[in-house]
Design goal:
Blueprint lengths: L25 H16 L4 E3 L9 E4 L11 E11 L3 E6 L9 E6 L1 E7 L5 E7 H14 L10 H19 L4
Antiparallel strand pairs: 1-2, 2-3, 3-6, 4-5, 6-7
The protein binds zinc ion.
Amino acid sequence: MPKRNIIIEPDPILRKKSKLIETVNSELKILMDDMLETMYEAPGIGLAAVQIGILKRVIVIDISKEPEKKSPLFLVNPTITYKSKDTSIYEEGCLSLPGYFAEIERPAECHLDYLDYHGKKQELKAKGLLATCIQHELDHLNGILFIDYLSKLKKDMIIKKLKKQKNNLNKIVI
Ligand code: ZN
């Protein structure tokens, strides 16, 4: 069982804007540790706090392929300072949209400012999978999901199916 419950679309909280963090304190570190554990167990390569129901601008990412070589990245209050004109396309999925994938085009490279696990200011230049992952997670902080880049028809169909799956989960026979 993951440490915290992951919120599945459709849920109004996934559409809310997350709030800036004022200080990186021990409470926030506990949240970041829990998020990382939840992400590893899911398993996924990125998780935003809103996905476990907390509207704070915090993201955890780990794109390392080998499980024994973990390299977690904690991003507090991330802001993108540069996006390349070049784009790349990845087939994206999301822990809040289980079972659905779509090819999404995003800037191939991005630079960002953020605070790390210890509250220290950092800069990062990302490209490839990491750049896509960062942009996907940052979207979460602004209430945006990858299905928002699809046609309305496709998006509505996915939301309808997810809603149906959720309703079935709630039904019990005793
Ligand atoms: Zn996601």
